[in-house]
Structures are given as C-alpha cells and as structure tokens.
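User: Please predict the structure of the protein below. I'd like the answer in structure-token form so I can feed it into my own downstream comparison script.

Assistant: Understood. Taking the following sequence of 306 residues as input:
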Amino acid sequence: MAIYTCGHTTPDSDSICSALSLAYLLNKIGKPAIPARQGPVSPETQFILDRFGFDAPELKTEFAGCELFITDYSDRGQAPADLDKATVVGIVDHHKLGDITTSTPLECWIRPVGCTNTIVKEMYDFHGVEIPKNIAGIMLCAILSDTVIFKSPTCTETDIKAVKELAKIAEVEDFGALGMEMFKVKSAVEGVPVRDLILRDYKPFDMHGKKVGIGQLEVIDLAIFDSVKDELQADLDKLRTEEGLHTACLLLTDIMKEGSEVLVSSEDASIFEKAFDVKLENSKVWLYGCLSRKKQIIPFLEPAFA
C-alpha cells in the first residue's frame, strides 16, 4: 500500500512542496509514496511548480483506508474529515503541536524552524539521500516563502543554511531575486474574488472550544488592497457567520514595511484587543513587525480565549 504525503486544507507552497519532496524521499528509502493535496494550488505555488517542472500533486480529500504521512500541520481542523478512518504513519511539521492523536506508533519530525521543507531537508541528510535539482528548487522556494525571504521571526539559522545548500543543488545563483519574483506573483490580487483571497492561505483553529479562522495575504505593497479592503471585511463577516466561527481574522502583510494590517470579525472583539493590547478602529489594526501567524498571532490569541 502506498503512503499518501499530504498537507493541510487550503494548502500553501510549503504544504504542497513538502508533500512532493517527502514523497520522493520515501520512495527512495523503499516506502512507496504518492504526493497529494487537499485543496487548490495558489498562484505562488503554481509559479514554483512551473519554474521547476512539476505537476500539482493529486487532489484528494478522502483518505479512509489509506496510510497518511501528514506534512505542515498537526491540528485536526486542518486534516481530512475522515482522518479517523486513515492510518497516520508520520508527521513532519514546524508549527505548535496540535490535537491529532493516533492508535498506532508513528514517525514524527517536528522542529521549531521556519518551514516544513527545512525539516524534510534534514530527513534527506539523515537518510543519506541525494536531493535532485528540481526537488531542491521547490524546497528552496517553500523555505523562502514561509520565512518571507528570511524576514520572518520564525526564520532560523537552520533555514538559512538549508536555503544556501539547496540553492547550490538547484543552481539558483540569486535566491533573493527568486524570492521577490514569488512575492510579486503573490501580490497579484486584481480581479480575484474576495472569498478566494481570504481563503488563499487560511487555517481553522479550535481555541479553548471556540472556532477561529485566520487567513493571511503577504504582498510587497499593502496599497494594492485599498480598493477591496471594505469588500474583504464584509466577506470576512459573512464567512464567520457561514462557518459558525467566534472570530475570523485576515492578516494583510506588507513584507517591505514588515508589518500587518489585521481585519477582524468577531462575536466579541474585546478578546482580540486584549490579546494584543490594541484598540480596533473600524474592525482593523496595524501590527508593526507582525509577519508570522504562527509565532506572532496564535500564541497570543489562543490564551485570550481561556
């Protein structure tokens, strides 16, 4: 039986690229594996796949009876609905430890680094498997994306070392320029439906029994949202109602100014205000220096619900 390698719902570049890179590694060490994805490919991820000659992994949302190696998450809210009917054989992740449990032993690679592909790189090194040029390319891009070209507070020396080593393998001379190309693609939002923007990089969470959804859009100039910001706020309110969420947030992250404007829709906005010691104005607030959802939003917001 083949193992499916698959990331979270509404997958980002790290989620899809780690599914591909992990599947290749597993196949090389004698464990047949198939990369998969739970949702659509974002424009940035498509750019990466096209750049290094990959097709998108198989779209698969049901895993009953399958063996599954989870990448880039460990929260049930980001898992397939039928997870309990699958056998989780492994997890590779760089987020907080979530609430997925298993009835059988499993392999876990969980490290506090900036990107899942950084950990997959360590797995290649551990197993002594050579990384092909095209695999190195997508891994490199995923790390640049997740670490915001090393600007994110989640970035570590391990991530930087991995990028430099992968760039040599992929024969990428200027990885900084490649990273900016990716973020220019990410910044192209004109004509995209607002719901698609909100869900482009969106993750659901259970915070002390309250359902919370947090999306993030990273761009090189926040001004591109000026004409659609009111629509984004209105649809965020609609999404919260439709999904029965207590709170829905959307981070509009300016990677050049190194901060995020956060749009908030909530049954009780005072919880968000208390978490970050701020006052919302028209359901919005600018958080200077905030680039990371997992390190600068979730660790502060989740305890506020306790």
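That's the full token string. The chain is about 40% helix and 20% strand.
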